[in-house]
Specification:
single chain, mainly alpha, Arc Repressor Mutant, subunit A, 2 domains, 59% helix
Length: 85
């Protein structure tokens, strides 16, 4: 997916300083729960759909940010300038 880094198993091991056995156990659990996905054609891992769902729930838990989004979108529409919360 654009904007999401895909990592090989060896990258995960190296970046986190884990043993291969530990990294495999963690990635297996994360995959089973939807936190990461493994692309079998490239054998790389990326963020999974469960993480997006958690992010969406966290976003809704912040009412001020949620309320401001509509105002920011209107500001962008009226001015043509980039705007974000």
């Amino acid at each position: 997916r654009p904007g999401h880094e895909r990592l090989r198993f060896s990258d995960v091991v190296a970046r986190l300083g884990l043993t291969q056995a530990t990294a495999h156990a963690i990635l297996t659990t994360l995959s089973e729960r939807g936190w990461v996905t493994r692309d079998p054609s490239t054998t790389t891992y990326s963020l999974g759909p469960a993480l997006a769902a958690v992010g969406a729930r966290a976003d809704l838990a912040r009412p001020l940010v949620h309320a401001a989004r509509a105002a920011i979108q209107q500001l962008h529409t009226e001015t043509g300038y980039a705007a974000s919360v």
